[in-house]
Design a protein that fits this description.
alpha+beta; three-stranded antiparallel sheet; 3 strands; 23% strand
């Protein structure tokens, strides 16, 4: 379930920061699409808001979650670049929730 858009002037700059950090961390070309979104997690034990980051290289999708609102993310929260292959999404396996 997606969280409603919150009117907070700091939210869009935070999304831009995470987008740019992702591009730099994984050395993505300018034409690579990057998606950053906060989602609400209704399951017990989940943080109320988590951030999902997805990016594409050619036709391959990569993604990861950060278990905090986008405004609280710092660059050290992103996965290390050497983990990129582990972030590759195999279609039809896992991530059914997102």
């Amino acid at each position: 379930m997606f969280a409603s858009v919150r009117k907070n002037p700091e939210r869009l700059p935070a999304i831009d920061r995470v987008t740019e950090w992702t591009r730099e961390r994984f050395k993505l070309p300018k034409e690579s699409a990057i998606f950053v979104s906060e989602i609400a997690c209704p399951l017990p034990g989940c943080p109320s808001l988590e951030t999902v980051v997805a990016f594409w290289i050619a036709r391959q999708r990569y993604q990861f979650k950060l278990f905090k609102p986008v405004q609280e993310i710092v660059v050290e929260d992103l996965p290390y670049a050497w983990l990129k292959d582990a972030l590759e999404v195999q279609e039809g396996i896992g991530w059914e929730c997102c």
